[in-house]
Amino acid sequence: MKSNRELWRMTLDTNPDHCNLNCIMCEDHSIYSRKNGRAIRPMMPERLMESIIRQAAHLGVREIIPSTMGEPLLYNHFEKLVDICRELNLKINLTTNGTFPIKGKKNHVDYWGQKILPIGSDIKISWNGSSEKTQEKIMVGTSLNSHMKNAQALVAMRDSIAANSGHYCNLTLQLTFMEMNLDEIPDLVRMAIKLGFDRVKGHHLWPHFKEITHLSLRRNGDAIQRWNRCVSICTYIAKAEKRLNGKSIKLEHFFPLNVEKPDDIAPGGECPFIGKEAWIDHSGRFNVCCAPDELRRTLGNFGNIYNNTLDEIWNGQTYATFSDSYSEHQLCKICNMRKPLSIPSRSIA
What we know:
By secondary structure, the protein is α/β, with parallel strands linked by helices. It has helices spanning 46-58, 78-87, 108-116, 132-138, 144-165, 185-195, 221-240, 293-296, 310-314, 317-325, 330-334; strands at residues 9-12, 22-23, 63-65, 91-96, 120-126, 139-140, 170-177, 199-204, 250-252, 277-280, 286-287. The chain is built from eleven helices and eleven strands. The radius of gyration is 20 Å and the shape is globular. Mean pLDDT is 91; it is low at 344-349.
């Protein structure tokens, strides 16, 4: 059966268990998740990756996101993925931890920047502290100084490519909102403005492990009020301090929370993904969203690319039924990826 859903973007979880950092909030690579003793999942086979992208392009997908679980640049077939996207005129939307790793190459950020920026729609660099201490404590294995140098190099390449070819790739500083970096978030916004980023995007912490539940800014009224004050400060900074090109930086998911409803991050807000985007994991499993893997599996079994085409799954009855009823699922009700229908002009006390 055909539907009026438009699949415009596809995420491939190409290498969920391969990363060179141990960020404390990461579902898969945190020092706390290592205690689970789970077996390492293999990388997505090259043939599966290519098949998914070609099927997606046939359905009208315009943008591909390499793995957001693990560091995508460590995927063995990442360069082939880039080549296929270039061939099919698809944009790449990349989320990287900012270290730009690659085996046997020097000037890593230059190498990857020259490959991705010409066909990139957005490159999101994970960044969680404006001080060396906070950055290294949250993103274990990284360095603030290295992040700064890599960002400066990437911005320069982005601007050069835009001037020569006319193609402009957005650059985003991406972070996780949590107790540990709350006081530094305004400085991160200022840093992003000075460096030349287009956007600062964040999400509230998914407390995957009991060891980090105390870091959630949704845990009690006091934490929520301090978050709401941070939103007001950051909103002011974004309006008052312009980037070098004279434009304002964009803030994504910087909105106040309701003290009385901490579990409902966006009352009345719709899912930004259902009917628009899809995820395929390393094994070919179709997923409906980017919620933590164990949680999104509770939403149902929608099929596998090894057994069904992407068209059959996307336009099938199982996904159609879920699309019509997703808001009834408990996970969807508490999901921190939704946006409110309207964002208040000032913080909720």
